[in-house]
Amino acid sequence: GDDVKTAKNDDKGRSAKEGGGKEGGATEEAEKAGSVLSAAAAEAGRSSVARVGEAGAARVARAQSKYDTVLAKRIEAEGRIRTVRKEVMATQDADELEDELDAGDDWGVGHKTHLLTDKKSGLDFMTSQRDWLRQVREARTAAGLALTLGLSAPPSLLELPRFESAGCANARTDGGIS
Questions:
Q1: Do 95 and 33 lie in a common domain?
Q2: In a domain, 4, yes or no
Q3: What is the dihedral of CA 125, 79, 86, 131, to 10 degrees?
Q4: What's the rounded Cα separation, in Å, for the pair 70 and 108?
Q5: Do 30 and 98 share a structural domain?
Q6: Does 141 lie in the same domain as 104?
Q7: How many beta carbons lie within 10 A of that of residue 86, not counting itself?
Q8: Cα separation of 61 and 66, whole Å?
Q9: 3-state secondary structure string, 24-60?
């Protein structure tokens, strides 16, 4: 009696799950995937808990090591940015500067609490370097556009003074185009 009712109820439950067609199967697969992820998260959690609970001296040593590493990398990144940052737009390698700025961002040179080697704000420094990079790229775009427009204009419509100043001269100075 009771075993038959239980079997029928189990069949109804399976039928309800399977009755949804693909959705029922998808739900079951999602549950399996969730279980796998939960197991992985639980294992990662146990590992983290073990690390947090490590002996005091070892934990402090690990923290100091991380601090020293990050500070050294920030100082190194700051130095590389200062090395590749040029004072004249024409000599600025924009891609190289952008790469170094990205590396500086990765290490936190622009963190709001970071002070540079000269004790100035890392955030202000990185903001000014990004502004410089933007200005360089805008100047090069403008100079390139002026050159393109001037070169494509018929001689009768070409404004020579503007072509020389906005195109040729800016391309050589601000634009870094030679």
A1: no
A2: no
A3: -20
A4: 8
A5: no
A6: yes
A7: 16
A8: 9
A9: HHHHHHHHHHHHHHHHHHHHHHHHHHHHHCCCHHHHH
* Cβ atoms within 10 Å of 172's Cβ, excluding its own: 13
Alpha helices in the chain (DSSP H): 2-19, 22-52, 56-84, 94-107, 122-152, 160-162, 170-172
- Over residues 55-64, the pLDDT tens digits come to 788 999 999 9
Using only the alpha carbons of the chain, give its radius of gyration: 32
pLDDT at 147: 83
Q: Which residues contact 130 (CB under 8 A, 6 or more apart)?
A: 101
Q: Is the pLDDT assigned to residue 146 strictly greater than 60?
A: yes
Tokens representing residue 140 in the block:
């090069």
Instruction: Kindly report the average pLDDT of the chain as a whole number.
Output: 79
Whether the predicted pLDDT of 78 surpasses 80: yes
Which domain, by its residues, includes 146?
54-172
Tens-digit pLDDT profile for residues 98-129: 999 999 999 999 999 999 999 999 999 999 99
Of the given ranges (7-16, 32-41, 97-106), which has the lowest mean pLDDT?
A: 7-16
92-to-132, 139, 154, 173 alpha-carbon distances in Å:
10, 12, 33, 11
pLDDT at 40 over 80: no
